[in-house]
Amino acid sequence: MERNALQSIACLGLGLSDFAVLELLLHKGPQPVHAISRKVLLASGSTTAALDRLEARGLIQRTVDPQDLRARIVDLTDAGRRLIVEAFNKHAADMEQTMAVLKPAERTELVRLLKKVGLWAEARL
What we know:
There is one protein chain. By secondary structure, this protein is α+β, with helices and mostly antiparallel strands. 67% of the residues lie in helices and 14% in strands. It has helices at residues 2-10, 16-28, 33-39, 44-56, 78-99, 104-123, and strands at 31-32, 60-65, 68-76. The longest helix is centred in the C-terminal third of the chain and has 22 residues, at 78-99. The chain is globular and about 50 Å long.
């Protein structure tokens, strides 16, 4: 699965962590840096490196959080939004093709089990 996911986004010049950050911003909107680290499961230094790469490519922008001047809010630029929409649509189609081997009932069960594990893991944090 991971190899298929990596191949799906590699043609866009994105690594998995960069894709995860852009996808988070696409679906959840602007986020503080610390929330990005937590939500995409990256260490602080790895998050900073990913944000630096994405900012250098003009895909994100960091602004001061008006409620906490020490914090930064990260958002997509127009170019970043265009890229992640294209990348996410391609990735979703590629993952759909990967999962096509499962029958509908098997897919439903897989989703249920993954949610169960994810909720348990999240509760441990």
